[in-house]
Design a protein that fits this description.
47% strand; nine-stranded antiparallel sheet; 2 helices; alpha+beta; disordered C terminus
């Protein structure tokens, strides 16, 4: 009886173990499939982070707008600066000069009915002022007063005026040559009588700047030349001159007020 009871108990234990194994296997299958099902959770987490990544450009939009607005704000400031510079920019000064000469002239009168001529000596102090309109061209006015000798064969220069265009050239980079061409009006006479002479006038002058001998010297030039003041069939008036000329600048060179 004891042996039969032991066998029956062993059979019951084996039966219970045999039935429990399939159940245990079925219960463990969901636990093994959990990692496989959790993989979408990773994708879900990745998709959840996407709005955060896309939100970054939203913060960059104001920065780009600010960068685009900066040049538009600076442009008017630059234009105002350029306009103010043009308005306050100093102009080029006027290149002017003035001179005085001592002139000895000869008035040669044609004699009617003969081939000879009567020559009368005269002289004047000649003042001239000019403007160097271009680098090598000047405009010049001249005026003269009598400086004749009270001797036989002389005549007074009662009046002289002239207006000239003066092209220039430089010789050996030191001496400046001037070629006045224009119109002159002169009056000669003696003992209350006078005769006027007007015609085209022309000549040549050589000018030596004192600054050729030293940069610290004033801009004064030694001048010498020869002019034809009148030339027609009835008479000729011509003469030589020596003098001084002073060059200077005037106006339009002052600094702008701050």
């Amino acid at each position: 009886m004891k042996a039969g009871a032991s066998w029956a108990a062993g059979a019951a234990l084996c039966a219970s173990l045999g039935l429990g194994l399939p159940v245990f296997a079925q219960d463990e299958e969901p636990t093994e499939s959990i990692p496989v099902e959790e993989s979408p959770t990773v994708d879900t987490v990745g998709e959840g982070t996407t709005p955060e990544a896309e939100s970054a450009p939203v913060e960059e939009v104001p920065a780009e707008a600010a960068a685009e607005e900066t040049p538009t704000e600076e442009a008017p400031a630059e234009e105002v600066a350029e306009e103010s510079t043009e308005e306050t920019q100093p102009g080029e000064p006027l290149a002017l000069y003035a001179g005085i000469d001592m002139v000895r002239t000869t008035l040669s009168l044609s004699s009617s009915g003969s081939g000879g001529a009567n020559e009368l000596d005269s002289g004047m102090y000649r003042a001239r002022v000019g403007w160097r309109a271009l680098e090598a061209v000047g405009l010049e006015l001249q005026y003269g007063v009598d400086n004749s000798d009270d001797e036989p064969g002389s005549v007074e220069t009662q009046d002289y005026m002239g207006a000239y265009v003066v092209p220039t050239a430089t010789l050996f980079e030191v001496v400046e040559l001037a070629f006045p061409v224009g119109y002159a009006k002169s009056s000669y006479g003696k003992s209350g009588s006078s005769q006027g002479y007007s015609s085209i006038a022309f000549g040549v002058d050589g000018e030596l700047p004192l600054r050729s001998f030293g940069a610290a010297l004033p801009d004064i030039r030694l001048t010498a030349g020869w002019m034809v003041y009148y030339q027609k069939s009835d008479a000729r008036a011509y003469g030589a001159n020596v003098g001084l000329r002073y060059d200077f600048s005037f106006g339009r060179d002052s600094a702008p007020a701050e």
